[in-house]
Amino acid sequence: MSLAASDTPFPSLVADSLIGSNAIPLIFGRGSVILTYALEIVGAPGLVPVLIGVAGVAAGAADSGASFAVESRWDLLDSGLSLIGDDVRSGQIFGGTFSKSFGHTVGISLQTNPPYSVFMLADAAAAATDVGSHADGHASIDPVFSFGPGVDPQIYSFNFSDGIGNSSPAVVPEPGTLTLLSAGLVSLGFLRRRPTA
Fold first, then answer.
1. Which of 8, 13, 126, 157 is the most buried (most CB within 10 A)?
2. Model confidence, pTM
3. How many domains does the chain have?
4. Greater confidence, 92 or 169?
């Protein structure tokens, strides 16, 4: 199992699980990480357009006698109610594959000065039930906030929880690239464990 969390320069989460090929039955592992942080727009009273560039992946694979479950999720919350978000989850899959991703920019108008919260989850579980079986899972989530067109940064600014940054990564992969990367990692896991004749 592995977990990776980054709060600066931008918040992102990654969870991975890799089980098998196992010499004993009933092996289970799970990598799961949650991050919740506060967000406030400071400035003159009113509604301000905000853009949220978000990317997420949930992917996994299991051979016969193994299973996995993966989830990638984020929500922008106002007093506990979700205003906007994405949630990709596989449910438990026995002996199969799953790969879904999202990568887009969503727009929303937010009130200045009251606090909002951002919820992020990356969860990857894998189980090798039968001897010699193999499963792996991968999940990641990465939202970045910016102001919409026409918002004056001299008048408005973002205020995040201590330690949370909001800079974009140098290169943001396209959603298709993320899906291919996840599928490739899952395939490499199977090839690495394939018995040689």
1. 126
2. 0.80
3. 1
4. 92
On the 0-12 / 13-18 / 19+ scale of CB atoms within 10 A, 47 is exposed
Query: Taking the alpha carbons of 136, 59, 68, 34 in that order, is the dihedral positive or negative?
Result: positive
pLDDT digits (tens, 9 = 90+) for 72-105: 999 999 999 999 999 999 999 999 999 999 999 9
Residue with tokens 């989460």: 13
Cα atoms found within 13 Å of the Cα of residue 37, Cβ hemisphere only? 24
| CB contact at 8 A, 62 and 70 | no
Looking up tokens 């799970």 gives: 30
Helix (H) or strand (E) holding 126: strand 116-128
Looking at residue 165, its pLDDT comes to: 74
Q: Given its phi and psi angles, is residue 91 left (phi above 0), alpha (psi -120 to 50 degrees) or beta? A: left
Domain range for 175 is 2-193
Question: Within 10 A of 67 (CB to CB), how many other CB atoms are there?
Answer: 23
CA separation for the pair 18, 189 (Å, rounded) = 8
Residue 79 CB partners (closer than 8 Å, separation 6+):
none
Number of helical (H) and strand (E) elements in the chain, helices listed first: 1, 11
